[in-house]
């Protein structure tokens, strides 16, 4: 997910997307501990996407 795509979204959409990604990240962590995860790099990309979303939410809140 690119930052430009995120900036085009509204604050509500960003927060719902973050919640969805957090749920998916939780499920992937559970599968990773059970050694059922096919692509472990997916964890890294999800963590980074969540961080991007949180950063842009903070930017929007600072702007007012």
CATH class: Mainly Alpha
- Inertia-based shape: elongated
Indicate the CATH architecture.
Orthogonal Bundle
Strand content: under 5%
CATH topology: Helix Hairpins
Major β-sheet, in short? none
| Broad structural category | mainly alpha
Q: For the CA atoms, what is the radius of gyration? A: 13 Å
Report the span from N to C terminus.
Answer: 24 Å
Topology summary:
Elements: H1 3-7, H2 11-33, H3 41-63
What does this structure look like?
The protein is mostly helical. It has 3 helices and no strands. The protein has one domain: Orthogonal Bundle (Helix Hairpins). The model has no long low-confidence stretch (mean pLDDT 94). The two termini are 24 Å apart.
List keywords for this structure.
64 residues, mainly alpha, Helix Hairpins, 3 helices, 80% helix, elongated
Brief digest:
The protein has 3 helices and no strands. Helix content is 80%, strand content 0%.
């Amino acid at each position: 997910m690119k930052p430009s795509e995120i900036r085009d979204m509204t604050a509500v959409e960003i927060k719902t997307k973050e919640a969805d990604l957090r749920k998916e990240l939780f499920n992937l962590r559970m599968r990773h501990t059970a050694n059922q995860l096919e692509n472990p790099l997916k964890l890294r990309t999800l963590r980074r996407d969540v961080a991007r979303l949180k950063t842009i939410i903070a930017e929007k809140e600072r702007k007012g």
